[in-house]
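hey team, just a heads up i'm posting the complex here instead of the shared drive bc the drive is being weird again. everything in one block, sequence lines first with there labels, then the predicted structure for the whole assembly after. its two chains so it's a bit long, scroll down
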Amino acid sequence: MKQLYYEVKKCLGCRSCEIACALAHSLSGELFKAVKEEVLSLPRKKVLSSKGRNYPVSCRHCKDAKCVDACIAAALNFNKENGTVSHDEARCVGCWMCVMVCPYGAIRPNITTRIPLRCDKCKDKGEPACVAACPTGAIILE
Amino acid sequence: MKQFVIIGNSAAGIAAIEAIRERDKESKIIVISDEDYATYCRCLISYYLSGEIKEGNLFYRPESFYKENNIELLLNKKVSRIDHKKNRIICEDKSILNFDALLIATGAHPKFPEIPGIKKQGVFGFRTIKDAKEIGGLLPITKAACVVGGGLVGLKAAYALKKRDIDVKVIIKSNQVLSQILDFEAASLVAKKLQEQAIDLIFGQDVTEVIGNGDIKAVKLDSGKALGCSLIIVGKGVSPNIDLIKETEIKFNQGIIANNLLQTNMPNIYTAGDVCESFDLTLGALSLNALWPIAVEQGRIAGANMAGANFGYEGSVAINSIEFFGLPVISLGRHKIKDKENGFSELKLEDTKAGVYKKLILKNNLLVGVILAGDIKSGGVFLRLIREKIEVSSIKDKLLQENFGFPDIIDLVKEKERLYV
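-- predicted structure starts here --
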C-alpha cells in the first residue's frame, strides 16, 4: 500500500503542492479556468512551518482513523484494499466532527461547501498531483 | 463457542459487534433494540427533519451488515431485567436469553420537565427516527412551534423547524445558548446566527405549563406570559437508560459505572455509550459524556475485551462540534472555570471583524478546555494536547495563532514520526 511521505529537509515551503492539489480537484484542471470556477477548489494539504522547517500537513489515511470513528453520518470508511480513508461526500453533512478529532489537524473545514477538505490521494489518477508538482522531490509516494 | 448479547443497536453496539467479529467469527452475537429500525445515525435526525437528507442516508451500516456479521438482531424488544447471577437477561415479553458476556449499551432518553400538560400529544423529545417522523408528520398543519431548552438538541431541532418554514421560539432557562458546552462569548456568536435567521430565542425563562384541551394551544412561561404554538420539542438533556439494572448489584450513579476495561463491577458485563459513566480526563472523575464519537470508541474497546482482548480505556473528554448557518464551533473539555477554582488561566482571542473567538483554559500549563468559534482549524491538535496531557509552556504563544498546527507540537508528542523524514 503506497503512502505519502514528506522529507521536510527538502521542503522549501513553496506551496506548489497546494496549488497542484487545488487544481487536481478543480473541475477544469487548468489554473486560469479553475480560479474562476463558481465553487473555488481549495487545497487539501497545507504547508505549515515550525522552527524554520516546513511541513506539508495532509491526511495520513490512518488505519485506526479517529475521523472514521467520529463520523456521525457514516460518510468515512477505511478502505483496506487501497489503504485510504474514503469520504462519501453525498452522505457528509458538514458537522466537522472529523476536524475536531484529527490528531494531525489534517482535515480542514470548507465552510462554503460544508464538505471537509481532505486528501484522497488523487483517487485513481495514479501519482498524486502533489508528488508530481514538488520541485525538490520532498513528497514521496512509496 | 460463546454467546454474546448486546443491548443497544446504535453507535456503541455496532462498534462492539465489529470489534468482536475482528477477533471471533464463530460465536453467536445477539443484538437487542427497543426501536424498529436497523442501526441509524441518531445525530442526523435534525437533517432528516429539515429535509436536507433522505431517510436512506440515515442508516449507519448497509442493509447486509447484520447478515454479513452473522448477527441475530431482535428489534422492538425491551430488556426488563438482568439476572447476573445466572448470566441471563429477561425481556418484557418474558423471553430469556443467556450470555457469556453482555454489553449494556442501552443509551439514554430525553428528560422532560415535570409540569402540567407535558404528556399531551404534540410534545416530543428529539432522539429517534420515530420522533423525527412524528414531528415531520405534523409540520403541514403546524404554524408555530416552541423548543424547550437551548442545548445542542434543542437548537438542532429549532434549526430543522426553521428550515421547514415553521415559526420557532426557543425557551432557554439560562442567559445563553449551549450553556453546557460554551462560554457566554462563544454562545453569543451562535445566538446571533440563529436570531439572524429569525429563530426567536427567549432567555431566562422556563416553561411552567403546556396549555390546551386536547390539542396544544400554548406554553406558559415563568413570567406568566403564554406563547402560542401547536408543537413542542423538549431538549432538556438526556438521562441514561438504567432501569434494567436498578434491581441488581451492578453499580451505578447517574449512569452505569465502568472501570478502565469498560466492565461493570460484574466482570462479564460491560457497558459503553450514553448509558456508561466513565472516567473523564479533564474532570479527573467519573462523568457522563453522551456523545457519538465517545460511544463508538467505548463500544470498540468493550467489544474487543468481551472477545478476550485486554484494552484499557484512558477516559473520555467532552467533545462537541456544531455548525449553524455557516458558523462552525468546537468545544473540548472544560468550557468555564468556576469562580472558586484556583490554578486555572485563560488565553483568549477575539476578532469581531472576522467573526472569530477562541478561548483556551489551562491548568499548570496543561490544556483542559478549548472553545473555537468561527475558526476551527486544527481542532484535533488541541484535543490531542488535552488527551495526551502535553505540557504547552513552550508553545503558549503559538496556540492562538492563525497558522498553529501539528508541526508546532511535533517535538512534544510521544509517537515516533514516520511520515516526516
